[in-house]
Write a structure and sequence with these properties.
Blueprint lengths: L1 H15 L13 H4 L16 H35 L7 H36 L6 H29 L1
Helix pairs in contact: 3-4, 3-5, 4-5
Length: about 160
């Protein structure tokens, strides 16, 4: 009888199993068969804008005038700083050098204002969903570089006056 019980136990377990329809397939699902990379989308192309081109040209012309004025003021400021180097703080030559530095900084601020205006135009275009405008981006990059050079020159003159 024990022998019969051992033979009947596997038959009873086979009755509990199913044909395998209840288990998920191990084959790749359709979502797993698609590529993982992002779809390729063409870059948006900016349409020519005559008004924006005119505004950029005007800002570049104004910036060139500021750069020329800054250059001449920088030479004058360098001479005043050279005269004021080593004299007592508050002396007439030291005050003249400080005034020249302040004027130089004011001129540099005018160029920074132009860069800021152009950046706000670029930000407004971005916010509106427009494509980047290459002439605008080029103007911002060029004028930002000039403004950074001017800031370095002012810092060097301030350090020369202080030391």
């Amino acid at each position: 009888m024990r022998y019969l019980l051992f033979l009947a136990a596997p038959l009873g377990l086979c009755a509990c199993s199913t044909a395998g329809d209840g288990y998920p397939s191990l084959l790749p699902r359709p979502i797993e068969q698609r590529p993982d990379r992002d779809p390729v989308r063409p870059d948006p192309v900016a349409t020519p804008d005559a008004a924006l081109d005119s505004q950029i040209a005007g800002q570049r012309t104004a910036a060139e005038a500021i750069v020329t004025r800054f250059r001449s003021q920088a030479m004058e400021t360098e001479s005043r700083v050279a005269i004021a180097r080593g004299v007592a703080i508050g002396s007439e030559s030291w005050i003249a050098a400080q005034v020249a530095l302040a004027d130089l900084n004011r001129t540099r601020g005018e160029l920074v204002a132009i860069v800021t205006d152009l950046e706000s135009v670029a930000a407004a275009r971005l916010q509106a969903g427009d494509a980047p405008y290459p002439a605008l981006d080029s103007a911002i990059a060029a004028l930002s570089t000039r403004a950074a050079e001017q800031a370095d020159q002012v810092r060097a003159l301030e350090a020369a006056l202080a030391g």
